[in-house]
Amino acid sequence: MYTTVVALFVLIGCKEQKEDVAPTAFTLNVDASYLTTETDNWVFIHNPDGSLVDHKTFESGDVMIFDKTESFTGDNFSVTIFNYAKSPTFNIYGLKSYVVENFGQEWTLKGQDEIPISDPVETGNFTVNVTDLPTTLYARSLSSRSGLWSHWTTNTEAAPVIREGDVDFLLSVETEIGLPKYKMIENVADQDVYNLSVANDFLDFDRFVDVSFPSAKDVRLYVLGFDDDQSVGSFGYILYNNLVYDKPLRSNMPIGLLNRFNKYNISLSVPHNGMFIQYSKLGPAPTSINLQFDNTIVVTDKSINNYTYTTSNPFNMRKTEFHYINNVIDGMRINWKVYAPGGETKINGLPDEFYSQYTAFNMDSLSHWKSEFDITPNVSYSGFIDEEFKGKEKNNSEIERYTISVQ
Fold first, then answer.
1. Which of 188, 290, 370, 404 holds its CA 20 to 30 A away from the CA of 334?
2. pLDDT tens by residue, 117-147
């Protein structure tokens, strides 16, 4: 009988001890693909008010478990991933902060897939001379499927390089607002010379997409077209490379497209009431673009430790970026991005061990670069987190986004 009571007491005692273990607040797995051999790597946990909860250093393959202790004071918290890299010229500090909406989550930090980069063999040069470009040009570019070759910024003659497999070139100009023209030069050979006239050789674009927006000046437009065998990305034929900032007031504009291309990269930015309404689209071109939004967003405190804003309408998520550049102190570069579903995420400090190791790092030196508020239908912060950390596949081939940017 005595033995049975003792055994029962031991079992009960063990059970009570097990229940006293603190629950897990957050788990971060570092995948082997996340390379850390050339960087210092830390994770910081902060409460919503910005107070520091916990921190750890990490390497590839680590599993970091953060217990839910009394140091957590809110319903959510933020996780900041820090990387430091030193080059012969720069000291680069990269930080990304994410709001964790619920306790007990498990995320996996993975590296970016490496994209092989090849430098095609140069096979020659050719010359393009456009004889009747007007003095005022609103947009102009000369490009191939590999991207931009010339802005034609100082004259009407260009001598681009021909590379293997890259023999078709697109010339585009916008001599009047909303009236772009183009010339496609195909199968270019070494030492070819093309003497062209806008009036006689350039054609109207094949079709147009109508864009409406609040009346504005300095509308910025960038459009790439891609052949069917190309992936949609940052390198392609340039239909618009509109970087001129003195355009007249307008509230709509047509975007010209070519039947040759079935997929595009379209980027549009419209200044409005101290903000920028931004549109981006990867994939097939839309039939129209409506940027008539009445949202008003004001960032009332642009510091990272007391960030606040006001908004007249809801949004899906935001990304805020803080920068610091100092070429005197060893080429110091700090880029800090904060991702959040809403709210006013604050970060007030980092651990003493961190400041002892990085003596030049100063949070007070950070300046607000921009805040982007996503208003795209059917986009959510939780979906973004699922793509970043939970293995949900990203659809990079066809993406359409609407954001409001405040600088």
1. 404
2. 566 788 888 888 888 877 666 667 888 988 8
- Residue-wise pLDDT tens digits, 193-209: 999 988 899 999 999 99
Secondary structure of 125-174 in HEC code, one letter for each residue: ECEEEECCCCCCCCEEEEEECCEEEECCCCCCEECCEEECCECCEEEEEE
Residue 312 has pLDDT above 60, yes or no: yes
Sign of the Cα pseudo-torsion (102, 107, 111, 113, in order):
negative
Map tokens 């051999």 to a residue: 37
Kindly write down the DSSP assignment for every residue of 307-326, as one continuous string: -EEEESS--SEEEEEEEEEE
Which pLDDT score, from 0 to 100, does residue 7 have? 46
Laid out side by side, the sheet with 40-46 consists of: 52-57, 40-46, 77-86, 91-100, 332-340, 317-326, 367-374, 399-406, 275-283, 263-272, 220-226, 237-242
* Domain extent listing, the chain: 1-112+326-358+370-397, 122-290
